[in-house]
């Protein structure tokens, strides 16, 4: 079982609906198993390494690879992210005695599964000294590699926080400010764009360190990566190994200056932008055309949402994928989808019950100056639960469950102090407000403060998974009975 506290979650409220919703989430998460999918992609037979046989995973489009390990001197594995350890474990098992060394950085509290690859813990979403130390280890191994070596990289979402080796003149405190601005304004673009100019790892810079070695790059993010079709892609990504993209400082800085957060950037960063110091610019795309590298995406969000849909059908419900990559503010998404669920229950349209409506993607929560602790899926669930319990679309026939697929929805107590606590999401039904009143919890006040975690924990409605090994954004299901 991926969901560790299932019995607690189905011990109250709409027990039948809660059990169905949790089973559907389990089906989606299991379908995107990173260890199993990495082993499908990479196989070792004697001293030959086979990479491929899975066209859907081939992002760079260079085709299957056969590597004679007798012609390779050293094999390294490096990476970082919220969901890379299971892929690294697969590589450790596949490579066996041919693995020379490796290092990955994972989020604090994650169980260490590896025997030969060094694991460093760092903080997410706001990086710490462990994050910087881990990034330095990756760069050190990458710089060792020669033309006779092979380097595997494993990067996922979260890598920008877990491998943030600051550029010269930039401090960890500067990075803290930038990440907190992203949380304040609810905009990941603050990290993916300004931050990309101040990393010695991101925007493909890690690939510079790897040269002249050959690299095989396993990548994971919420959406599908751009297919190359014979050219270096112009899109950008959080994933550090991905090429730099088309945007550069001369185009970006005018856009940055127009944003409300620009004046809040650290002085050292604003100084670089104001001087248009191109020594901080991203590597040119042409540089990547001469590198010996390939990119593969062993798991993606479509596997996850399809796995959830298939599980719903097995359980006797209509499984409907409403949107595989929904991007919106959490509370607004909850409001719209709640009304669709009510329409199903009341009028049997667009789907007659029993039905499971499934969405994936990546929601956001602009917190402003609020001091609460939560996450986008916890807030989604709590907001929908409040609507189920009172008002025009109140219902006892709808159950909603939402999780971050990596098992860590929001910062947990990193931003609140106290004992480490990080939930994957939440499950709610029409009993929410009655249970909250009995517990002395004002749900609407907690939502206003973006404080979803502790109310859900106290109401035995917070989903706990621990690290799932995957990182494909959100998975949400609304069961209408």
Considering the chains and any ligands shown, give keywords for the structure.
481 residues; 17% strand; glycerate kinase, domain 1; 18 helices; 2 domains; 6-stranded mixed sheet; single chain; Rossmann fold; alpha/beta
Textual characterization of the structure:
There is one protein chain. 36% of the residues lie in helices and 17% in strands. It has helices spanning 6-9, 15-31, 34-41, 85-95, 129-144, 159-162, 172-185, 189-192, 205-210, 249-257, 267-275, 285-288, 301-314, 330-347, 376-389, 432-439, 443-448, 453-458; strands at 42-45, 48-51, 65-68, 75-80, 101-107, 118-122, 150-156, 214-220, 293-296, 318-326, 355-361, 398-404, 425-428, 462-463, 474-480. The strands form three sheets. Strands 6-5-4-7-8-9 form a six-stranded parallel β-sheet, sandwiched between helices. Mean pLDDT is 93; it is low at 414-420.
- Gap between N and C termini: 24 Å
Q: Which fold name is given in CATH as the topology of the largest domain?
A: glycerate kinase, domain 1
- By CATH, the superfamily of the largest domain comes out as MOFRL domain
Estimate the strand proportion.
15-25%
Strands of the widest sheet, in order across it, are: 6-5-4-7-8-9
Our count of domains comes out at 2
Radius of gyration: 23 Å
Report the oligomer.
single chain
Structural class: alpha/beta
Number of helices: 18
The total beta strand count reads 15
Output the CATH class name of the largest domain. Answer: Alpha Beta
Weakly predicted, low-confidence segments: 414-420
Main pleated-sheet profile:
6 strands, parallel
